[in-house]
């Protein structure tokens, strides 16, 4: 059975599915030099293979997995988290980024910091730190790793799930919930786009659980996966991945 990699090299074109609703992995109408993290990764991989690059923006995991299986895209680079159920329909690469469930919490919901230099001051740095607060309420995009995490960890609290992150953020800014939950990379990029949020909200981005951001490839195509994994390993070794991470998640130059 031939690998999808053979077909890519034969047609001299790599078709990559990207996430059209997840900046800065993919940025619509991007600024010059800032196409998005996954867009830059896709271009580097196409260059490594010596083929042309074609981009197809999609939205849901089901769309990505169906189109990979159908051959209409070859690989998905979409800020995508791995999990066991997803792994039944695609083969995941080794992770190229690490993230964690994170939160943006209303400052007024947190207890005031004690005055003076009291060593036992409790600071809130991760979502798990919120467990000591009464009357918690969360907003989150539905059917995501972060949604599942909330159901496991904070199932006794009010959890409102929405079809998009933007609607879930609205629930926070309108005061309907105390905390918006997404992965830490999303929270960091949100604060780059809307720095004014820092006045009213605290980012809780310390790790509570490893979330792997990986490429999705055709199921059981180990030749293709091995090729991509070597490519990612070399980009990590040479600092390219870290450079892209800093460019998009620690800086705001990409913001339109």
Condensed summary:
The chain has 256 residues and is of the alpha/beta class.
Characterization of this structure:
The chain has 256 residues and is of the alpha/beta class. The protein folds into 2 domains: 4-97 and 211-249, D-Maltodextrin-Binding Protein, domain 2; 101-204, D-Maltodextrin-Binding Protein, domain 2, CATH 3.40.190.10. Helix content is 33%, strand content 20%. The protein has helices at residues 4-11, 37-49, 61-70, 145-153, 165-173, 184-193, 222-237, 240-249, and strands spanning 13-19, 52-58, 75-76, 91-92, 97-99, 101-106, 137-141, 158-162, 179-183, 201-204, 211-213, 216-217. A 5-stranded mixed beta sheet has the order 8-7-9-6-10. Strands 2-1-3 form a 3-stranded parallel beta sheet, with helices on both faces. The chain has a two-stranded antiparallel ribbon with strand order 4-12. Helix 4 links the parallel strand 7 and strand 8. The radius of gyration is 20 Å and the shape is elongated. The N and C termini lie far apart (45 Å).
């Amino acid at each position: 059975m031939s690998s999808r990699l053979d077909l890519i090299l034969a047609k001299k074109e790599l078709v990559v599915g990207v996430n059209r609703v997840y900046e800065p992995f993919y940025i619509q109408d991007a600024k010059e030099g800032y196409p998005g993290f996954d867009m830059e990764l896709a271009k580097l991989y196409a260059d490594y293979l010596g083929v042309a690059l074609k981009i197809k923006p999609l939205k849901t995991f089901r769309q990505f997995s169906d189109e990979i299986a159908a051959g209409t895209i070859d690989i998905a680079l979409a800020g995508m988290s791995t999990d066991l159920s997803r792994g039944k329909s695609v083969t995941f690469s080794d992770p190229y980024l690490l993230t964690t469930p994170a939160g943006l919490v209303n400052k007024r919901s947190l207890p005031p910091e004690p005055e003076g230099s009291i060593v036992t001051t409790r600071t809130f740095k991760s979502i798990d730190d919120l467990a000591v607060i009464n009357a918690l309420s969360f907003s989150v995009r539905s059917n995501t790793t972060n949604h599942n995490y909330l159901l496991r960890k904070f199932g006794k609290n009010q959890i409102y799930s929405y079809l998009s992150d933007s609607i879930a953020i609205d629930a926070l800014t309108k005061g309907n919930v105390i905390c918006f939950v997404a992965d830490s990379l999303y929270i960091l990029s949100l604060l780059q786009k809307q720095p004014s949020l820092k006045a009213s909200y605290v980012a809780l981005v310390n790790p509570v659980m490893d979330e792997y951001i990986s490429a999705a490839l055709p199921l059981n195509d180990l030749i293709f996966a091995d090729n991509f994994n070597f490519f990612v390993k070399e980009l990590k070794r040479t600092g390219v991945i870290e450079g892209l991470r800093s460019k998009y998640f620690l800086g705001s130059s990409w913001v339109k």
